[in-house]
Amino acid sequence: MKNIILVGIMGCGKTTISKLLSEKLNMPVIDMDEYLEKKYQLTIPEMFDISEDYFRDRESEACLDMAQLDGYIISTGGGVVKRKENRDILKQAGTVFYIDRPLDNIVSDVETAHRPLLKDGPQKLYQLYDERHDLYLDSCHYHVDNDGTLDDIVNKIVEDIK
Known about the structure:
- Helix content is 56%, strand content 14%.
- By secondary structure, it is an alpha/beta fold.
- The longest helix has 17 residues, at 123-139.
- Its EC number is 2.7.1.71.
- One of its GO terms (molecular function) is shikimate kinase activity.
């Protein structure tokens, strides 16, 4: 089976949905941020402290690594779509789903202390969404609204990959 790749803004549900898909489809999951932290022995905030470009370069390398895989569920970082090369690589590496969740739901759920780009407050989330929404659409094969139950979303994704 091809890779299933989840993209979307931070807090949209990629990590949770990837774990549920893994259970349902018996496929392994790779969380790109966890992969980066393990590979480079730095946390995401530490990479951002070096520079955002430093982090984005590592993220692009991870996209190339992920493209070598087959049969995985890949949960990406929220900004992976900022580079066209990443969008193109991911589209070729599997079936890409854009998980689109209402921003008000994200703001009420997300712990901003562990999100480097949100350290200045939730208004940054709205700005990021405006900047990235079209990039997510450009990167995906399927656009999935995360405004129902998690089971509904997982079942929709499973239906779409058949």
